[in-house]
Amino acid sequence: MNREQLAARVLELVTEIAPDVDPTSVIPGIDFRDQFDFDSMDTLNFAIALHRELGVDVPETDYSQLASLDKCVAYLAEHVS
Amino acid sequence: MASEFRLPALGADMDEGTIVQWNVAPGSVVKRGDVVAVVETDKGAIDVEIFQDGVVREIVVQPGTKVPVGTVLALLEGAEAPPASAGKSGAADESPPPPVTAPAAERPSPVTPATTGARPRISPAARKRAGELGIDVATLQGSGADGVITLEDVEQARSAPQPTAHPPTAGASSTASMREAIAAAMSRSKREIPHYYLSTTVDVTPATDWLAAHNASAPVAERLLFATLLVKSIALTCDEMTGFSGFYRDGRFEASPAVHVGVAVALRGGGLVAPAIMETAGKSLTALMDDFRALVMRARAGRLRASELAAPTIILTSLGESSVDTVFPIIQPPQVAIVGAGEVVTRPWVVDGAIHARQVVTLSLGADHRVTDGRLGAQFLARVAQRLADPGSL
Questions:
Q1: Contact residues, chain A, for B119 at CB < 8 Å
Q2: B354-365 pLDDT, tens per residue?
Q3: What would the pLDDT profile of B178-212 be if each residue is shown by its tens digit?
Q4: How far apart are CA B101 and CA B88, in angstroms?
Q5: Would the CB atoms of A24 and B119 count as touching at under 8 Å?
Q6: Percentage of residues in chain B having pLDDT higher than 90
Q7: Helix axes A69-79, A3-17, angle to 10 degrees
């Protein structure tokens, strides 16, 4: 997957775990927490979705690297085979 | 023998609801626990279950009608209280009756980018339903507070061939009615309940260490949140101490035989609901986590069940990461206690005469002086803290 595809996939997963987030309103450089009040439950659900859909097992210690759309894409670009 | 199915109350702060959809029709066979109707309330759209077996004889209240709590919604035939020994939980192999309105069971179509900067203000449940029905929300006119599109509007648009295009109103609160409901419940609480408040700061390093180790080795889907440990600790403590889990009604306290810990869930548009994790004390941490996750998802998607909203016998309000040290929690009547938890933070802490960096959290209790006093409340918080100190036993 290239970066555009990764970003689109991440957005799909974000709206799957947080159906009350409008995907067209996501600002890539801002942390999900600051945009949408993402909490620890959202982050965990996001990690579960990444594992299920993309096969990436993100350890808890790496959760901070999933904080925004831009950070997610950078992290996944390194970890998705 | 015929019986009446009435609109249930969903806690202290709900006095009316609008029937949005029936999942059954005259002749439908219903079983205890079936979701028979969707009702729009101040707390969003709620799935309302039925608590008896029978056959629907008549739908009394039609969709689109707003009625007070206690109104007869439908009449049932052959309804009787389920026998206590019949093992009703084993009925999962029978499929529920199909929805009368038979919505297309397709995935919502991908959301198209908004053509203008302003997007329509719409409740999560309404957005989901519009997606299911293939209705462009930009064509809807909201009838809710400040022009917010409600589930009802979406249902009406489905039957109306020519929806009126209307620019959405921007800038106003989308949760005015929920705010009113919260205000009503909290006003009643402060008016009627003689609260006392206690707090204690607890070294939870053993719990956070245990959690980190568990989450490092468990599959990602089985990782736990700190709040899960809190919920279980509270439930076990309620099981051994009376006076905190139950309801104050008709001038006296009724202890609840089962502990259903409610978890306060903040909604992203603003507002708050506190659905219950049922039978909390008897569940494993993994089962609690699964229930907790499902509740938060459904609370935010606007698909809670009526029983979950009415059930809590005590509530945990955990403000979590990046929040505050201490919560001063207000009891939700008719309950008699509520536990608050601030953020888990690293602080200098004295252990065995030396200063260490430890993970601490401040637990608080708001409780009802008509039922307990501060001394018992202090014991309650101390027992919760003791259980957190031994996470392996939870």
A1: 22, 24-25
A2: 999 999 999 999
A3: 888 889 889 999 999 999 999 999 999 999 999 99
A4: 27
A5: yes
A6: 50
A7: 120
